């Protein structure tokens, strides 16, 4: 695997390989000594042009547990704030010998541009580009679904027949897009729920079922997974719904809706959560919720991605069968 830029072009076999490699990585994290020598001598740069807490820390932890040298780059306080271009930044990283670059950028397509530009020889991993994609978030979500729904038998499993309902700000969500493509590749049935104003242009051409009513979607689909999305007010420059109270009443996962879910159903959220808006505290903190599991699983999934990106093969000698 040379780069990881999106899930739309990720094959079913490659997706399962990443998820299974993440199982190997998760097994090593149960040991007293969590650090592996796998990427010793490799340099990984966290190139973040947008603010981030979970993703940046998760990638840093993943790289360090693989013994890579980590360089954290923030656009704030760097030459980017003085007008330096992505090309000049990339060439600087090339000059210092970066082996891998993890990039988060507000412009859709920035990761692909970096990977195809010829400015840098490093492997490129997309940590979120504009409203385009966030592939490792989708992979950690799928990893969490497999573990919750298949338990100890999750290794090698797809998500064939699993019903996933994704609710909320679809228009501005790169997480929704990456999940859609990955879940379809893994055989899941995906439904989207949002007010018309929060659906992106062209959504009716996507392989999904659309709903404007959360209650209708829950009753019709009887989902195995309900994924709530954050309302991204920082990307909104107009009024997309009348007020927060109306949004919570119509599209929020409250305690009453939580109680109507099937016994098997789980609740997911990529974080950070707006409690009381898209999700109630009761739902966020319930045994059905996988929010903290998603954060923990993110380290194992990102370890797997970095391993496959920078070494190109599976860690046979380090595998621990689960």
TrEMBL record:
<feature type="domain" description="Aspartate/ornithine carbamoyltransferase Asp/Orn-binding">
    <location>
        <begin position="160"/>
        <end position="308"/>
    </location>
</feature>
<feature type="binding site">
    <location>
        <position position="230"/>
    </location>
    <ligand>
        <name>L-aspartate</name>
    </ligand>
</feature>
<keyword id="KW-0808">Transferase</keyword>
<dbReference type="GO" id="GO:0006520">
    <property type="term" value="P:amino acid metabolic process"/>
</dbReference>
<feature type="domain" description="Aspartate/ornithine carbamoyltransferase carbamoyl-P binding">
    <location>
        <begin position="2"/>
        <end position="146"/>
    </location>
</feature>
<comment type="similarity">
    <text>Belongs to the aspartate/ornithine carbamoyltransferase superfamily. ATCase family.</text>
</comment>
<dbReference type="GO" id="GO:0044205">
    <property type="term" value="P:'de novo' UMP biosynthetic process"/>
</dbReference>
<feature type="binding site">
    <location>
        <position position="137"/>
    </location>
    <ligand>
        <name>carbamoyl phosphate</name>
    </ligand>
</feature>
<dbReference type="InterPro" id="IPR006132">
    <property type="entry name" value="Asp/Orn_carbamoyltranf_P-bd"/>
</dbReference>
<dbReference type="GO" id="GO:0005829">
    <property type="term" value="C:cytosol"/>
</dbReference>
<feature type="binding site">
    <location>
        <position position="272"/>
    </location>
    <ligand>
        <name>carbamoyl phosphate</name>
    </ligand>
</feature>
<dbReference type="Pfam" id="PF02729">
    <property type="entry name" value="OTCace_N"/>
</dbReference>
<comment type="subunit">
    <text>Heterododecamer (2C3:3R2) of six catalytic PyrB chains organized as two trimers (C3), and six regulatory PyrI chains organized as three dimers (R2).</text>
</comment>
<dbReference type="InterPro" id="IPR036901">
    <property type="entry name" value="Asp/Orn_carbamoylTrfase_sf"/>
</dbReference>
<comment type="function">
    <text>Catalyzes the condensation of carbamoyl phosphate and aspartate to form carbamoyl aspartate and inorganic phosphate, the committed step in the de novo pyrimidine nucleotide biosynthesis pathway.</text>
</comment>
<dbReference type="InterPro" id="IPR002082">
    <property type="entry name" value="Asp_carbamoyltransf"/>
</dbReference>
<protein>
    <recommendedName>
        <fullName>Aspartate carbamoyltransferase</fullName>
        <ecNumber>2.1.3.2</ecNumber>
    </recommendedName>
</protein>
<dbReference type="Pfam" id="PF00185">
    <property type="entry name" value="OTCace"/>
</dbReference>
<feature type="binding site">
    <location>
        <position position="55"/>
    </location>
    <ligand>
        <name>carbamoyl phosphate</name>
    </ligand>
</feature>
<dbReference type="GO" id="GO:0006207">
    <property type="term" value="P:'de novo' pyrimidine nucleobase biosynthetic process"/>
</dbReference>
<feature type="binding site">
    <location>
        <position position="271"/>
    </location>
    <ligand>
        <name>carbamoyl phosphate</name>
    </ligand>
</feature>
<dbReference type="GO" id="GO:0004070">
    <property type="term" value="F:aspartate carbamoyltransferase activity"/>
</dbReference>
<keyword id="KW-0665">Pyrimidine biosynthesis</keyword>
<feature type="binding site">
    <location>
        <position position="174"/>
    </location>
    <ligand>
        <name>L-aspartate</name>
    </ligand>
</feature>
<dbReference type="InterPro" id="IPR006131">
    <property type="entry name" value="Asp_carbamoyltransf_Asp/Orn-bd"/>
</dbReference>
<feature type="binding site">
    <location>
        <position position="134"/>
    </location>
    <ligand>
        <name>carbamoyl phosphate</name>
    </ligand>
</feature>
<feature type="binding site">
    <location>
        <position position="54"/>
    </location>
    <ligand>
        <name>carbamoyl phosphate</name>
    </ligand>
</feature>
<feature type="binding site">
    <location>
        <position position="82"/>
    </location>
    <ligand>
        <name>L-aspartate</name>
    </ligand>
</feature>
<feature type="binding site">
    <location>
        <position position="104"/>
    </location>
    <ligand>
        <name>carbamoyl phosphate</name>
    </ligand>
</feature>
<dbReference type="GO" id="GO:0016597">
    <property type="term" value="F:amino acid binding"/>
</dbReference>
<comment type="pathway">
    <text>Pyrimidine metabolism; UMP biosynthesis via de novo pathway; (S)-dihydroorotate from bicarbonate: step 2/3.</text>
</comment>
<dbReference type="InterPro" id="IPR006130">
    <property type="entry name" value="Asp/Orn_carbamoylTrfase"/>
</dbReference>
């Amino acid at each position: 695997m040379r780069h990881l830029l999106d899930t739309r072009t990720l094959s079913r076999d490659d997706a399962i390989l990443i998820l299974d490699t993440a199982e190997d990585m998760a097994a090593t994290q149960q040991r007293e000594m969590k650090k592996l020598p796998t990427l010793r001598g490799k340099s990984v740069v966290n190139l973040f042009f947008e603010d981030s807490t979970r993703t940046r820390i998760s990638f840093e932890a993943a790289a360090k547990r693989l013994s890579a040298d980590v360089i954290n780059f923030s656009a704030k306080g760097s030459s980017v704030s003085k007008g330096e271009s992505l090309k000049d930044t990339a060439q600087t990283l090339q000059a210092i010998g970066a082996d891998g670059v993890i990039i988060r950028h507000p412009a859709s397509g920035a990761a692909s541009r970096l990977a195809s530009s010829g400015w840098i020889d490093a492997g490129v991993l997309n940590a979120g580009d504009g409203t385009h994609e966030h592939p490792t978030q989708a992979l950690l979500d799928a990893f969490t679904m497999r573990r919750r729904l298949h338990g100890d038998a999750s290794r090698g499993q797809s998500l064939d027949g699993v019903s996933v309902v994704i609710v909320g700000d679809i228009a501005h969500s790169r997480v929704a897009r990456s999940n859609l493509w990955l879940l379809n590749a893994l055989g899941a049935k995906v439904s989207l729920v949002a007010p018309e104003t929060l659906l992106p242009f062209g959504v009716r051409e996507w392989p999904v079922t659309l709903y404007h009513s959360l209650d209708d979607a829950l009753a019709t689909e009887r989902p195995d997974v309900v994924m709530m999305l954050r309302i991204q007010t920082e990307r909104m420059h107009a009024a997309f719904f009348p007020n927060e109270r109306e949004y919570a009443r119509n599209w929020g996962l409250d305690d009453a809706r939580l109680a109507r879910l099937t016994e098997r159903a789980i609740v997911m959220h990529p974080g950070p959560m707006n409690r009381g808006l898209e999700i109630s505290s009761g739902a966020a903190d319930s045994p059905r919720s996988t929010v903290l599991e998603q954060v923990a699983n993110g380290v194992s999934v990102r370890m797997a991605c970095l391993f496959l990106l920078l070494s190109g093969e599976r860690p046979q000698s380090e595998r621990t069968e689960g």
